[in-house]
Amino acid sequence: MATDKAGPFDYSRKWSLRLVFVFGAIFLYLPIIVLIVFSFNDSRRGGNVIWKGFTTKYYEKAFGNEELMLAFGNSLTIAVTSTVASVLLGTLAAVFLWRFRFPFKPAFEGLIALPIVIPEICMGVSLAMFFSQMGWMDTSNRIWPFNLGNIIIAHITFSFPFAAMVIRTRLASFNPEMAEAARDLGANEWQAFRDVLVPHMRPGLIAAALLSFTLSLDDFVVTFFTSGPSTVTFPVKIYSMVRFSVTPEINAASTVLILMTLVLTFLALRYQRLAS
Amino acid sequence: MTSDAPILSIRGVSKRFGDVTVLKDISLDIEPGEIFSLLGPSGCGKSTLLRLVAGFETPTSGSIWLDGKDMSRLPPNRRPVNMVFQSYAVFPHMSVEDNVAYGLVADRVPRAEIDQRTAEALEQVQLDAFANRKPGELSGGQRQRVALARALVKRPRLLLLDEPLSALDAKLRDAMRLELVKLQESVGITFVIVTHDQSEAMAMSDRIAILEGGHLRQVGSPAELYRKPSDAFVADFIGNVHAFEVQRIDVDVDGAGAGAGAGAEMVLDIASARLGTVRLAMDLPKGIEPGEQAPESTLLVVRPEHVSVTLDEPPQGSVSLIGQLGDIAFQGSRSIVEVQLADGSGLTAIVDESIADRLQAADAGAPITAFWNADTMRLLARHAQATSTTTTTTTTTTVES
Question: What is the 3-state secondary structure (H, E, C) of chain A?
Answer without folding.
Answer: CCCCCCCCCCHHHCHHHHHHHHHHHHHHHHHHHHHHHHHHECCCCCCCCCCCCECCHHHHHHHHCHHHHHHHHHHHHHHHHHHHHHHHHHHHHHHHHHHCCCCCHHHHHHHHHHHHHCCHHHHHHHHHHHHHHHCCCCCCCCCCCHHHHHHHHHHHHHHHHHHHHHHHHHHCCCCHHHHHHHHHCCCCHHHHHHHHHHHHHHHHHHHHHHHHHHHHHCCCHHHHHHCCCCCCCHHHHHHHHHHHCCCHHHHHHHHHHHHHHHHHHHHHHHHHHHHC
